[in-house]
Amino acid sequence: MIPGLGNRRRFADLSEQEILALAISSEEDDARIYRQYGERLRAEFPATAAIFDGMAAEEDQHRQLLIELHRSRFGEVIPLIRREHVAGYYARKPVWLSANLPLETIRGEARAMEQEAHGFYTRAAQATSDAATRRLLGDLAAAEAGHDRRAAELTEAHLDKDTRADEDFTARRQFILTWVQPGLAGLMDGSVSTLAPIFATAFATQDTWTTFLVGTAASVGAGISMGFTEAAHDDGVLSGRGSPWKRGLASGVMTTLGGMGHALPYLIPDFWTATIIAMVVVFVELWAIAWIQNRFMETPFLRAALQVVLGGALVFAAGALIGGG
């Protein structure tokens, strides 16, 4: 009976034929994953894609060796057994199904795949008594352990220092376009645009609970609006800015947080205590925005600070004057 998800086998209970079959299916899966990474990276990171092509070719060689060994020992029919059929067997996280994976995430997943495969072949070699099978599995364990060296060789062949620097720059640019830029725009909008309604309400009513409700409504409403606007106005195909839902999430969440930062102090019943704390929070938010602009957008810090702080001060003053009038 073919083991299924509801009837998982223990690794210790597998026969030597089933261990070989599991190794064959695992090599097939890993080769597909490496090729998937290669295809995903080819347009923007062709040198790294070539490295994954080489690693996929190695997995194909391992699979052929395993198939030949199975043919010589057990015949042509290979049992259908896969990772998910074995309890405790390492499983590949389906991250390769996600679009717009960061380059470093893909590299990290590849390293994890090699380490897990090495552990499997070491256990598999210990579980077999046939000398030829044990030798091949031991060789494959050594090959997986040596993939770092092989990856270094492929890197040297396909990815020189300048190319690596270019690919890293492209990856950083993609991160900024997908997460930092929309998040920064949201933080700026949430921090600045909610100043007027929050402080106008505060000075007009001097009721902290009413101010908190107005601030929460303004922050959440602005977050929803900014999130949908960011996701809807650009699908990222032509601009290369990445997944619209990621950008919308970054923009919406940061917009809400930017507004809630100076709305939350009004949970404090005392009006002036809450207002002073809210002003301090606004000051911190505005300087954080200036730092992010300087750190990721390469905007000179003094210019960023002047723009953000001046803009925030004007909006705050407008809210205070309207509320106080």
TrEMBL record:
Membrane topology of the entry: Multi-pass membrane protein
One term under GO cellular component: endomembrane system
GO biological process per UniProt: intracellular manganese ion homeostasis
Residue span(s) of domain Rubrerythrin diiron-binding: 18-154
Keyword line: Membrane, Transmembrane, Transmembrane helix
Ranges annotated as spanning the membrane: 274-292, 304-323
Keyword Membrane: yes
InterPro entries: Ccc1_fam, Ferritin-like, Ferritin-like_SF, Rr_diiron-bd_dom, UCP035918_rubreryth/DUF125
Pfam families registered for this protein in UniProt: Rubrerythrin (PF02915), VIT1 (PF01988)
Any GO MF annotation of the entry: metal ion binding
Superkingdom of origin: Bacteria
Protein name: Rubrerythrin family protein
Species for this entry: Paragemmobacter kunshanensis
NCBIfam families per UniProt: FeExpMbfA (NF045676)
